[in-house]
Amino acid sequence: MLKRWIAVSAAAILLVSGCSKEEKAEEPEKQDTEKAEEATKGINSEKELPFHYPLTGLGSEAEVDGRAVAVMINNHPKARPQSGINKADVVYEMLAEGDVTRFLAIFQSEQPEMIGPVRSSRDYYIELAKGYDGLYIAHGYSPEAKELLDQGYIDNLNGMQYDGTLFKRESFRQAPHNSYISFENVLKGAKEKNYAMEDEPESLEFLSKDEAKAIQGVDADSAMISYLDNELFNVIYEYDAGLEKYKRYSNGELTADYKSGEPALLDNIFIAEADHKVVDSAGRRDINLTSGGKGYLLQKGKVTEVDWKNIDGRILPILNSKQAGLVPGKTWINIVPSSPGLEQTVSFENKN
Known about the structure:
Elements: H1 10-13, H2 22-39, E1 51-52, E2 59-60, E3 69-74, E4 90-95, E5 101-107, E6 114-115, H3 123-131, E7 135-138, H4 143-150, E8 156-158, H5 159-162, E9 167-169, E10 179-182, H6 183-192, H7 209-213, E11 218-219, E12 222-225, E13 235-240, E14 245-250, E15 253-254, E16 265-266, E17 268-274, E18 276-278, E19 285-287, E20 293-299, E21 302-311, E22 314-319, E23 322-323, E24 331-337, H8 342-345, E25 346-349
Parallel strand pairs: 3-7, 4-24, 7-8, 17-24
Antiparallel strand pairs: 1-2, 3-5, 4-5, 6-10, 9-10, 11-21, 12-13, 12-25, 13-14, 14-15, 14-16, 17-20, 18-19, 20-21, 21-22, 22-23
């Protein structure tokens, strides 16, 4: 059964930090709405376009090509707000060491000017990037990840070799939360290493407009994910019925681009549980991303219980023994530990 989130008022959580008076919170909220509306201009056009991006299903006037780029992005509170993450087609969020989550952001349809802060790699993130044939970008590595990278398992650019050249240390953040890379330098590094960047990844499966309108499920305007009871990494997804998209919050802070303030606007939220095991004294983990298991799929303000499978390196939702179609747009995938599990980690609220 789906667990209802009734312990916390979503409205209270979303107030801007430090606002002690009601009127002080209203202006940033208005700005967030305006930026969200600006970011969605043209996205919901009724015009049928001849081509489609493989990882969003959104239409394009021109033929689509270009390799996916998968970037490790820091999610420490000192790294927020991040740069470029609102432009990612798909984002995986998983635990690294301790109770700290980290992002693997996969870009194909858009190329943000700056991405970061870039953080170090882990072997399970490399496996996911491989599933999209992505050029893998990270700064640092665990011993297991370094072994894979040294073997040439995946095309990659790492800040350990390019710190100060392709990767830039920004003055407004302190190490290790200050490593950034521009998309221009991603392409420059790929050219230097003779990595092919022309071929687009295999497409995900998307719903038609009529199928998206007919989505069934339990009403859920909000979803909260608690990663090991550390409030700093609590995730809240709020469905904006006007935009027909989800906004994401980390510990009450809107997930948005550092420079522009444009929020990450999401169409699919997929939450899956997987076995986690601590494997060394530093607290590094092994996460089983091949076993399959239970999950929740949020689309259009509704949540459905699903299963998940690893299909060619991608963690995908399964409904009635078939791959569940995605709503065209951006997708965020949260992997949570199977102990304590989905029902103890994820909760929902319906405002109606």
